[in-house]
Amino acid sequence: MLIREGVARTPDDRFAGLPDFPFAPHYHMAPDARLGPLRMHYLDEGPRDAPVMLLLHGEPSWSFLYRRMIPPLVAAGYRVIAPDHVGFGRSDKPTARESYSQAALVGWLADLVTALDLRRITLVCQDWGGPIGLNLLAAMPERFEAAVAANTLLPTCEPPPLGVAGWPGPIITAWAETCRTSDDLAVSEVIAAVCVNRPDPAVLAAYDAPFPDAAYKAGALAITGCIPLATSAPGIAANRAAWAVLERFDRPFLTLFSDSDPSTIAWEAVFQARVPGAAGQPHARIAGAGHFLQEEQGPAMAERIIAWKRAGQAA
Predict the structure, then answer these.
(1) On the chain, which terminus has fewer CB atoms closer than 10 Å, C or N?
(2) How many CA atoms lie within 13 A of 159 on its CB side?
(3) DSSP-derived 3-state class of residue 95
C-alpha cells in the first residue's frame, strides 16, 4: 500500500504465519530529507544489556534470512538486532530507484544504531550487508568489538592485493545489467537459483512476502546498481575510506564464506590479508551452502560464531 507519494509499505498480513519466524517486529523512524521519515523494521531478541550481534542481510533478502541463527545466538547470551534495510522486509519501500544509494542505506542504518545506542557490537554481514555494514563500522568504529564477513565484498576497483583480479567479472556484471534493465524481479527464484538445494515452498514464499508486486521492488532492483563497477562510480570513495579504517581495525575479524558461491569467494583472501584483526582467526568455508549461507547452513554458521567469541573471551 502507498502510505504517501513515493513510499510504499507492505501490509502486515503478508507476514502472518511465516515458517520458523516467531519474532516480534520493532520499528524505528529513520529521517530522510526528501521522502520524510521512513519506518525501518528490526528484530530485537535477547537481553537489552548484553553484547550485540548486528545481523545484516543483503539483496533481495530480509531479516527472515537469519531466523535459524537468532535462537542459538540469544541462547549464547547475545542481544540480536536484525534490521531490514529500507526497501526490504517490513521496512518502508521508496518506489523510485533514485531514492536508493549506498550512502542512503548506510545513513538509514546508522540512524537506527545511534537511536538504539548499540555498543559492543559484533557485525555479521553478508552480500550487501557487507558494504553497508563495513561502511557503518568505519564511520563509528568505537561501537564495534568484532566483525564477521560472510559471502560479501567491499569493492574499490583496485587491482590485487587491494582488490580482486578482473573485477567486476562476468557474474556481477550480468547481474547488474539484469537488474538495470528489468522492471520486476522474481525474488524467491533469485534466492533459489544460488542455493545448493532449493528451499521449501513455504520458505520461498516468505522471501516473496515483502514484495506483493513490482511496485515494492525498486530497492531490490536499484541496490545492485549501487555496486561500484568502475573507478568513477558512486561508492568508490566511501569504500576506499572504509578500507582505510579496516586496515587499522585490529579487533577480531572473521571470514565465513561458503563452498559454493563463486560470486564472492575471491573477496575472502582480500579481507584476510588487509584487515589486521583477521590474523590468526579461525576462518572457515562452510560446506553445503551457496550464496545465502544463512539460509542453508544458518545453525552451523551460528555455532562457529559462538565458538569463536567464546574462545576470544577465554584468551
Answers:
(1) C
(2) 0
(3) coil
Asked if residue 125 lies in contact with residue 147, where contact means CB atoms within 8 angstroms, the answer is yes
What is the extent of the structural domain holding 309?
Answer: 2-314
> Could you tell me the CA-to-CA distances from 31 to 34, 35, 170, 262, 270 in Å, in that order?
9, 8, 37, 37, 35
* CB within 8 Å of 41: residues ≥ 6 apart: 25, 26, 27, 63, 83, 84, 89, 90, 91
| Neighbour tally for 97: CB within 10 Å | 18
- Residues belonging to the active site: 127, 261, 291
Question: pLDDT tens, 259-273?
Answer: 999 999 999 999 999
Identify which of 60, 10, 14, 9 has the alpha carbon closest to the alpha carbon of residue 206: 14
Contact 52, 26 (CB under 8 A): no
The strand pair at 253-258 and 38-45 is best described as: unpaired
Q: What is the pLDDT of residues 6-35, one digit of tens each?
A: 999 999 999 999 999 999 999 999 999 999
C-alpha–C-alpha distance, residues 70 and 67, integer Å: 6
- Say what the pLDDT of residue 314 is: 79
What b/e sequence results for 107-137 when a residue is b if at least 16 CB atoms lie within 10 Å of its CB, and e otherwise? bbbbbbbeebebeebbbbbbbbbbbbbbbbb
CA distance 26 to 44: 7
- Note the pLDDT of residue 313: 84
Of 55, 97, 243, 36, nearest in space to 157 by CA: 243
**The total number of residues written for the chain in this structure:** 315
Q: How many domains does the structure of the chain reveal?
A: 1
Contact 32, 38 (CB under 8 A): yes
Q: Any idea what the CATH number is for the domain that residue 177 is in?
A: 3.40.50.1820
